[in-house]
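Reading is simple: each integer encodes one residue's backbone shape. An example follows:

___
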Amino acid sequence: MADWILNEHEALRSGWKVLGFFLLFLALALAAMVGLHVLGKPLVLSPWLGAALGALASLFCVGLEGRPFSSLGFGPNRRWLLEWGVGLLGGLLIILASALLVRGMGGFHWERTQGMGLGRSLAAGWVFLGVAFSEELFARGYPFQRLLEGAGPWTAQGVFAALFALLHWGNPGMHGSTRAWATLTIGLSAILLGLCYLRTRSLALPIGLHLGWNWAQGSLLGFGVSGTTDTRGLWTPVFRDRPEWLTGGAFGLEASLPCALVCGLAIWVVWRWKGPGPLTGASSVPEPE
């Protein structure tokens, strides 16, 4: 068969595996939408439903290859939970540092949000956890890992950083300078999350960091989260007359220069960190030096 379909080992090339995954997910999503319509439910894929469909597509794809689901970077053990917790703390610190930089430059001040307690803030984290699982299954899970195997870390990082940023272009507020800064920061965050996977060969650290980033930005500090403006935090930022490239405006801190700088610093830190090595059964694609 043509060498653009099979590699030198007579195995399907990684690009076709990535395409097959996304086609399978689209088929599952269509089936879910039909099911929701039959049941008279809103035709919206919630974060957890999206995560479930992504996990099902991943399970089917690795099953065809004779690999376990854990090979994608899932391990119900102490180390996995520890890395998840470290990621959660890291995401929170990145957003807090970004917010404090913007505040220190006179971008806003905080006011306590009336009627918003810690319990409600933590409950909102359940939705963000679903978002983290769903998006990491796509952006650092099976498709990313198969592109790693076929094209190497640099190509996989570049492709999925661009894809991750472009998929946010449909979000509210993505226009003008906001689009430029948000695209830069979201692309940098994708590189950071990809490095977290490369250093650990686990999805625990990326999922934890993704959750901490979104929850701290929205449910804790009250900023928009990638353009969503319906999130209420424990505190509400009151913006002053400062440019949006400094504050991020309604889109959130992701559209600000300080957040891009902090994210760049986090990338440097993870780059310098050699990591603990892969989990048992995880992929062994070489890391970038």
About this structure: Strands lie at 108-112, 235-239. The radius of gyration is 19 Å.
